[in-house]
UniProtKB/TrEMBL annotation:
Superkingdom per UniProt: Bacteria
Record InterPro entries: AAA+_ATPase, ABC_transporter-like_ATP-bd, ABC_transporter-like_CS, ABC_transpr_TagH-like, Bact_Polysacc_Export_ATP-bd, P-loop_NTPase
GO molecular function, one term: ATP binding
Lineage per the UniProt record: Bacteria, Pseudomonadati, Pseudomonadota, Alphaproteobacteria, Maricaulales
CDD domains noted in UniProt: ABC_KpsT_Wzt (cd03220)
Organism: Hyphobacterium lacteum
Keywords of this entry: ATP-binding, Nucleotide-binding, Transport
Calcium found in the keyword field: no
SMART domains assigned: AAA
Family of this protein: Belongs to the ABC transporter superfamily.
Transmembrane regions listed in the UniProt entry: none
Keyword Translocase attached: no
Protein name stated in the entry: ABC transporter ATP-binding protein
Length: 260
């Protein structure tokens, strides 16, 4: 009985390890602007026309990958290749057209620095709400207010509505909140920075620490050195398809040779 208990405990613990599994994921957008038939020669692909003259952009086409706990996945490719679309699909911000994405664990997504802010609420209220969404009790979230306000350099404004903030103040607050709570899975679109040079240096240091603490990472970037340094594996996306997948160094090398 004791060993059966250990087996069950192991299986439960294993099932709760952060992971992402994407299988044959495709995603398309409806196009309402009657353009010239292409997004651009370097975009995500041709606009297809279906019955009734409906037009679609095929942004992702049969993308698959498996990311387990402790692994870091890099996404590379030219503008319009589908990197940001894939990140948004993983985060649940965009529904896939076919295939499926299975995610185990809580996701913290740094895709849009303004995403998730309630502008009528105070900075303090935003911190508490986001902390509770991340799984903290209200008391624990409130206990983090001063620390987050100090990092965002908003001590004197934290009890004012966010709508009264400058764009730089709002960006600093959102970055500070998004990186304050330890996620199971971290999703990052480019290596985000906010504010002036001094704050960006502080933000970069915090991002490195957050990546080290996260259970799994998906990072999209044009900085190939960053992808090689911060990720274990990489996907090279081109026109919504996986052009290459494997060890980050190998994929980056293939990409550089093809685009040189």
């Amino acid at each position: 009985m004791y060993f059966r208990f250990l087996e069950i405990a192991f299986l439960i613990g294993f099932s709760e390890m952060p992971s992402i599994k994407a299988q044959n994921v495709s995603l398309r957008f409806r196009v309402y602007d009657n353009a010239d038939g292409m997004i651009s020669p370097k975009g995500a692909g041709q606009i297809s026309t279906t019955q009734g003259a409906k037009r679609w952009v095929n942004a992702l086409k049969g993308v698959s990958f498996d990311l387990s706990d402790g692994k870091r996945l890099g996404l590379i490719g030219r503008n319009g290749s589908g990197k940001s679309t894939l990140l948004k699909a993983i985060a649940g911000l965009l529904p896939v057209t076919s295939g499926h994405i299975d995610v185990d664990g809580e996701i913290s997504a740094l895709i849009d620095i303004a995403h998730g802010m309630r502008i009528e609420a105070t900075g303090e209220r935003n911190i508490i709400l986001r902390g509770m969404i991340a799984g903290l009790s209200k008391a624990d979230a409130k206990a983090r207010v001063l620390e987050i306000a100090a990092f965002a350099e908003l001590e004197d404004y934290i009890r004012m509505p966010v709508r009264t903030y400058s764009s730089g103040m709002a960006m600093r607050l959102n970055f500070a909140i998004a990186t304050a709570f330890e996620p199971d899975i971290l999703i990052v679109d480019e290596w985000l920075g906010a504010g002036d040079r001094i704050f960006q240096q502080k933000a970069q240091k915090r991002m490195h620490s957050l990546v080290d603490r996260s259970g799994a990472l998906v990072l999209a970037s044009h900085d190939l050195a960053l992808i090689e340094h911060q990720t274990d594996e990489a996907l090279w996306l081109d026109a919504g398809r996986v052009e290459a997948a494997g060890a980050s160094g190998d994929v980056v090398s293939q990409y550089m040779k093809a685009t040189r």
